Amino acid sequence: MLVTTSYSPSREAEEKAKRFAEELNVRYVSRGTASVRRLGERYRDKRFLLVTERELHYYGGGETPLFFHPSLSLVRVKRLLNGEPDGLIEISGAVPGDVVLDCTAGLGSDSIVFSYAVGETGEVTAMESEAALYTIVREGLQAYETHLETFNAAMRRVRMKLGPHMDELRARADKSVDIVYFDPMFRDPVEESSAIGPLRQVANHAPLSVEAIREAVRVARKCVVLKEHRDSGEFERLGFGQPARTRTKIAYGVIHP
Questions:
Q1: What are the pLDDT digits (tens) for 11-57?
Q2: Topology of the domain covering 73-255
Q3: Hey, where are the domains in the chain?
Q4: Distance CA 167, CA 56 (A)
Q5: One Pfam family for this entry, by name (predicted)?
Protein backbone atom coordinates (compact mmCIF):
# COMPACT_ATOMS: atom_id res chain seq x y z
CA MET A 1 0.00 0.00 0.00
CA LEU A 2 1.08 3.58 -0.71
CA VAL A 3 0.11 6.88 0.89
CA THR A 4 -0.32 10.07 -1.10
CA THR A 5 -2.32 13.31 -1.08
CA SER A 6 -4.86 15.11 -3.21
CA TYR A 7 -3.61 17.53 -5.86
CA SER A 8 -1.86 20.67 -4.54
CA PRO A 9 -2.02 19.62 -0.88
CA SER A 10 -1.55 21.99 2.01
CA ARG A 11 1.56 21.56 4.12
CA GLU A 12 -0.65 20.14 6.89
CA ALA A 13 -2.14 17.48 4.59
CA GLU A 14 1.29 16.54 3.30
CA GLU A 15 2.69 16.17 6.82
CA LYS A 16 -0.35 14.14 7.84
CA ALA A 17 0.14 11.80 4.87
CA LYS A 18 3.79 11.28 5.80
CA ARG A 19 2.79 10.56 9.39
CA PHE A 20 0.24 7.94 8.29
CA ALA A 21 2.83 6.32 6.00
CA GLU A 22 5.26 6.05 8.90
CA GLU A 23 2.57 4.75 11.25
CA LEU A 24 1.46 2.09 8.76
CA ASN A 25 5.04 1.28 7.74
CA VAL A 26 4.32 1.89 4.06
CA ARG A 27 5.72 4.22 1.42
CA TYR A 28 4.71 7.87 1.01
CA VAL A 29 4.74 9.14 -2.58
CA SER A 30 4.30 12.71 -3.76
CA ARG A 31 1.13 13.16 -5.82
CA GLY A 32 2.36 15.77 -8.28
CA THR A 33 0.03 15.90 -11.28
CA ALA A 34 -0.45 12.14 -11.65
CA SER A 35 -3.79 10.40 -11.23
CA VAL A 36 -4.14 7.66 -8.64
CA ARG A 37 -4.29 5.11 -11.45
CA ARG A 38 -1.07 6.44 -12.98
CA LEU A 39 0.68 6.36 -9.60
CA GLY A 40 -0.47 2.77 -9.17
CA GLU A 41 1.05 1.83 -12.50
CA ARG A 42 4.27 3.68 -11.71
CA TYR A 43 4.76 2.02 -8.32
CA ARG A 44 3.06 -1.28 -9.19
CA ASP A 45 0.61 -1.05 -6.32
CA LYS A 46 -3.12 -0.39 -6.71
CA ARG A 47 -3.71 0.13 -3.00
CA PHE A 48 -3.63 3.77 -1.96
CA LEU A 49 -4.47 5.75 1.14
CA LEU A 50 -5.20 9.23 -0.17
CA VAL A 51 -5.10 12.11 2.31
CA THR A 52 -7.33 15.07 1.44
CA GLU A 53 -7.77 18.29 3.38
CA ARG A 54 -10.81 16.90 5.21
CA GLU A 55 -10.73 13.10 5.11
CA LEU A 56 -9.01 9.90 4.05
CA HIS A 57 -9.86 7.88 0.95
CA TYR A 58 -8.76 4.29 0.35
CA TYR A 59 -8.41 2.89 -3.17
CA GLY A 60 -8.10 -0.87 -3.25
CA GLY A 61 -8.16 -1.42 -6.98
CA GLY A 62 -11.78 -0.48 -7.54
CA GLU A 63 -13.06 2.75 -9.03
CA THR A 64 -14.96 3.85 -5.92
CA PRO A 65 -12.89 4.88 -2.89
CA LEU A 66 -13.68 3.97 0.69
CA PHE A 67 -14.07 6.82 3.16
CA PHE A 68 -15.59 7.24 6.60
CA HIS A 69 -19.29 7.98 6.90
CA PRO A 70 -21.60 7.23 9.83
CA SER A 71 -24.13 5.65 7.45
CA LEU A 72 -27.35 4.53 9.16
CA SER A 73 -25.94 5.00 12.65
CA LEU A 74 -27.04 8.65 12.59
CA VAL A 75 -30.61 7.65 11.73
CA ARG A 76 -30.58 4.97 14.44
CA VAL A 77 -29.35 7.36 17.12
CA LYS A 78 -32.01 9.89 16.12
CA ARG A 79 -34.64 7.18 16.54
CA LEU A 80 -33.28 6.27 19.96
CA LEU A 81 -33.41 9.95 20.93
CA ASN A 82 -37.08 9.92 19.92
CA GLY A 83 -37.75 6.92 22.15
CA GLU A 84 -37.93 4.40 19.31
CA PRO A 85 -36.35 0.95 19.74
CA ASP A 86 -33.16 -0.27 18.08
CA GLY A 87 -32.86 -4.00 17.41
CA LEU A 88 -29.21 -4.33 18.40
CA ILE A 89 -29.57 -2.30 21.58
CA GLU A 90 -32.69 -4.21 22.61
CA ILE A 91 -31.27 -7.68 22.01
CA SER A 92 -27.92 -6.88 23.67
CA GLY A 93 -29.54 -5.16 26.64
CA ALA A 94 -27.00 -2.33 26.44
CA VAL A 95 -27.58 0.33 29.09
CA PRO A 96 -25.63 3.36 30.36
CA GLY A 97 -22.38 2.33 32.02
CA ASP A 98 -21.91 -0.91 30.06
CA VAL A 99 -18.52 -1.92 28.65
CA VAL A 100 -18.75 -3.12 25.04
CA LEU A 101 -16.13 -4.88 22.92
CA ASP A 102 -16.93 -4.70 19.20
CA CYS A 103 -14.67 -7.34 17.65
CA THR A 104 -15.35 -6.39 14.03
CA ALA A 105 -15.48 -2.60 13.76
CA GLY A 106 -15.85 -2.21 10.00
CA LEU A 107 -16.91 1.41 9.43
CA GLY A 108 -17.89 1.74 13.08
CA SER A 109 -21.65 2.19 12.67
CA ASP A 110 -22.70 -0.28 15.35
CA SER A 111 -19.96 0.93 17.69
CA ILE A 112 -21.36 4.46 17.44
CA VAL A 113 -24.86 3.26 18.31
CA PHE A 114 -23.47 1.27 21.23
CA SER A 115 -21.52 4.34 22.34
CA TYR A 116 -24.68 6.42 22.43
CA ALA A 117 -26.53 3.68 24.34
CA VAL A 118 -23.88 3.17 27.03
CA GLY A 119 -23.29 6.90 27.41
CA GLU A 120 -20.47 8.83 29.01
CA THR A 121 -20.18 6.34 31.86
CA GLY A 122 -19.83 3.40 29.49
CA GLU A 123 -17.01 2.30 27.21
CA VAL A 124 -16.87 1.00 23.64
CA THR A 125 -13.70 -0.54 22.21
CA ALA A 126 -13.80 -1.37 18.49
CA MET A 127 -11.28 -3.83 17.05
CA GLU A 128 -10.15 -3.68 13.43
CA SER A 129 -7.57 -6.03 11.97
CA GLU A 130 -6.96 -4.16 8.69
CA ALA A 131 -4.58 -1.21 9.11
CA ALA A 132 -5.97 1.00 6.32
CA LEU A 133 -9.56 0.58 7.50
CA TYR A 134 -8.53 1.14 11.11
CA THR A 135 -6.84 4.42 10.20
CA ILE A 136 -9.77 5.69 8.13
CA VAL A 137 -12.32 4.92 10.83
CA ARG A 138 -10.16 6.13 13.73
CA GLU A 139 -9.61 9.49 12.05
CA GLY A 140 -13.22 9.75 10.90
CA LEU A 141 -14.66 9.12 14.34
CA GLN A 142 -12.61 12.01 15.71
CA ALA A 143 -13.13 14.48 12.87
CA TYR A 144 -16.56 13.89 11.31
CA GLU A 145 -19.14 16.51 12.23
CA THR A 146 -22.93 16.32 12.11
CA HIS A 147 -25.59 18.78 13.24
CA LEU A 148 -26.31 16.54 16.25
CA GLU A 149 -23.83 17.13 19.08
CA THR A 150 -25.02 14.06 21.00
CA PHE A 151 -24.08 11.94 18.00
CA ASN A 152 -20.71 13.68 17.59
CA ALA A 153 -19.93 12.96 21.24
CA ALA A 154 -20.84 9.28 20.78
CA MET A 155 -18.42 9.03 17.85
CA ARG A 156 -15.60 10.64 19.81
CA ARG A 157 -16.02 8.18 22.69
CA VAL A 158 -15.44 5.07 20.54
CA ARG A 159 -11.94 3.74 21.14
CA MET A 160 -10.42 2.09 18.08
CA LYS A 161 -7.75 -0.60 18.44
CA LEU A 162 -5.71 -2.16 15.65
CA GLY A 163 -5.18 -5.90 15.76
CA PRO A 164 -6.86 -9.33 15.60
CA HIS A 165 -9.85 -9.67 17.89
CA MET A 166 -8.52 -13.03 19.11
CA ASP A 167 -5.48 -11.32 20.62
CA GLU A 168 -7.71 -8.83 22.41
CA LEU A 169 -10.09 -11.51 23.69
CA ARG A 170 -7.26 -13.69 25.00
CA ALA A 171 -5.77 -10.71 26.82
CA ARG A 172 -9.03 -9.87 28.58
CA ALA A 173 -9.82 -11.22 32.04
CA ASP A 174 -12.89 -13.35 32.73
CA LYS A 175 -16.12 -11.34 32.88
CA SER A 176 -14.27 -8.10 32.10
CA VAL A 177 -16.78 -6.63 29.62
CA ASP A 178 -20.55 -6.58 29.50
CA ILE A 179 -21.18 -7.20 25.80
CA VAL A 180 -19.02 -8.77 23.08
CA TYR A 181 -20.24 -8.11 19.55
CA PHE A 182 -19.42 -9.67 16.17
CA ASP A 183 -20.54 -8.40 12.77
CA PRO A 184 -18.39 -10.25 10.21
CA MET A 185 -18.59 -9.33 6.55
CA PHE A 186 -21.52 -11.18 5.02
CA ARG A 187 -20.38 -13.99 2.73
CA ASP A 188 -23.64 -13.49 0.81
CA PRO A 189 -24.25 -9.73 0.80
CA VAL A 190 -27.69 -8.59 1.91
CA GLU A 191 -27.34 -5.52 -0.23
CA GLU A 192 -24.38 -3.88 -1.92
CA SER A 193 -24.79 -0.32 -0.72
CA SER A 194 -22.49 2.54 -1.73
CA ALA A 195 -20.75 2.14 1.64
CA ILE A 196 -20.45 -1.66 1.72
CA GLY A 197 -19.13 -2.04 -1.85
CA PRO A 198 -15.87 -0.13 -1.29
CA LEU A 199 -15.54 -1.66 2.19
CA ARG A 200 -15.11 -5.10 0.60
CA GLN A 201 -11.83 -3.90 -0.95
CA VAL A 202 -10.13 -3.76 2.44
CA ALA A 203 -12.21 -5.63 5.03
CA ASN A 204 -11.17 -8.94 6.56
CA HIS A 205 -13.36 -11.66 5.03
CA ALA A 206 -12.14 -14.53 7.22
CA PRO A 207 -14.96 -16.43 8.98
CA LEU A 208 -15.21 -16.26 12.74
CA SER A 209 -13.66 -19.13 14.66
CA VAL A 210 -15.37 -21.25 17.28
CA GLU A 211 -12.45 -20.41 19.57
CA ALA A 212 -13.21 -16.68 19.24
CA ILE A 213 -16.78 -17.27 20.38
CA ARG A 214 -15.54 -19.42 23.26
CA GLU A 215 -13.22 -16.63 24.37
CA ALA A 216 -16.01 -14.07 23.98
CA VAL A 217 -18.28 -16.11 26.25
CA ARG A 218 -15.47 -16.23 28.80
CA VAL A 219 -14.99 -12.46 28.94
CA ALA A 220 -18.65 -11.38 28.64
CA ARG A 221 -20.74 -10.64 31.72
CA LYS A 222 -24.07 -10.14 29.93
CA CYS A 223 -24.00 -11.58 26.42
CA VAL A 224 -22.24 -12.30 23.15
CA VAL A 225 -24.07 -11.05 20.04
CA LEU A 226 -23.59 -12.18 16.43
CA LYS A 227 -25.09 -10.27 13.49
CA GLU A 228 -25.51 -12.26 10.30
CA HIS A 229 -27.80 -12.96 7.36
CA ARG A 230 -30.98 -14.42 8.84
CA ASP A 231 -30.55 -17.69 6.91
CA SER A 232 -26.84 -18.02 7.63
CA GLY A 233 -25.47 -21.32 8.88
CA GLU A 234 -22.98 -19.39 11.02
CA PHE A 235 -25.44 -19.21 13.91
CA GLU A 236 -25.49 -23.00 14.23
CA ARG A 237 -21.79 -23.47 13.46
CA LEU A 238 -20.73 -21.01 16.15
CA GLY A 239 -23.13 -22.26 18.81
CA PHE A 240 -25.78 -19.53 18.74
CA GLY A 241 -28.62 -21.79 17.64
CA GLN A 242 -31.28 -20.45 15.32
CA PRO A 243 -32.10 -16.76 15.81
CA ALA A 244 -35.65 -15.51 16.04
CA ARG A 245 -37.25 -14.79 12.68
CA THR A 246 -37.28 -11.14 11.68
CA ARG A 247 -38.87 -9.06 8.95
CA THR A 248 -35.46 -7.88 7.79
CA LYS A 249 -32.74 -9.83 6.02
CA ILE A 250 -30.43 -9.72 9.02
CA ALA A 251 -30.74 -11.40 12.40
CA TYR A 252 -28.98 -11.39 15.75
CA GLY A 253 -27.87 -14.47 17.64
CA VAL A 254 -27.24 -14.19 21.36
CA ILE A 255 -25.37 -16.31 23.89
CA HIS A 256 -25.86 -15.52 27.57
CA PRO A 257 -22.89 -16.86 29.58
A1: 999 999 999 999 999 999 999 888 888 888 888 888 899 999 889 99
A2: Rossmann fold (3.40.50)
A3: 2-54, 73-255
A4: 27
A5: SAM_MT
